[in-house]
Each structure stands twice: as C-alpha cells, then as structure tokens.
Amino acid sequence: MAHKHPASAVTVCMLVFFLLAGCEKPPAQPLILPAGAEPSSFMFNERGTDYFHKGNYSEAVIAFLQAKAADPHAGEIHFNIALCRHMMGQKNKVRDSLKLAKKYARENPEILQSPFYLQYMQGEG
Questions:
Q1: Structure confidence at residue 125 (pLDDT)
Q2: Radius of gyration of the chain (CA)
Q3: Residue 54 to residue 35: CA distance in whole angstroms
Q4: 105: phi then psi, degrees, rounded to nearest 5
Q5: Measuring CA to CA, which of 21, 25, 41, 71 is 20 to 30 A from 49?
Q6: Rounded to an integer, what distance in angstroms lies between the CA atom of residue 8 and that of residue 56?
Q7: pTM score
C-alpha cells in the first residue's frame, strides 16, 4: 500500500537533517567548582551546567556570569563561560575567557590540560 502523504515523509527527513546539521558536539564539558566554593557561585554554576547539557547555551552563559559575579576568581567559571561562547559561535570572546580561566586556574589540570583550552591558547605564554 502506498503512502497517502509522501511529501510529509520528505518534510520530516529534511527537518531531521537540518536539526542535526546545526548540532555541534561540545569540545568539553562544564567544570564543577571545588569543595568550599562560594555557595551562590556553586548554585549558579550548577544551573549553568544544567542549561549547557540541555543545549541552551544563552541561558547557561547567563547563569555562569551570575556565578562569576559571586566569585570572579574561580577559573572553572571562566572556563565554562568560554565553552558557552564557543558553542554560541562567539569565537572572538573565547580566548579572553580562557585567559581568565588560566589566571585563576590554581594549577587545575582540568583547565590547563583540556584539549579545548590548548586548542585556543596555542602560542600563548
């Protein structure tokens, strides 16, 4: 028996293709804050991480910026902001966030040895 609506099958296939074509896999995952982090920065960082995992990068960056306001010296937060900016196509802002992540990294290898960090920061001293 032939399909009564062959155009609808084509439409669905095209929709799936375009949805998948716009999906870029994140180059890293957001980092959690260390034990003893300022409580509101921890809460906003967790909120940002939840939004990030749902693919809502604009809401994630807002939450991470709120975390940064509570604790501007957490390298993990700056790293997470950089990830969101990368996923939002704001490549020109990623390096600035990663420089701050390095400044406040406290030798955290999750930041300093991340392939995402190393890719952007090649040639930086």
A1: 53
A2: 19
A3: 25
A4: -70, -25
A5: 21
A6: 29
A7: 0.81
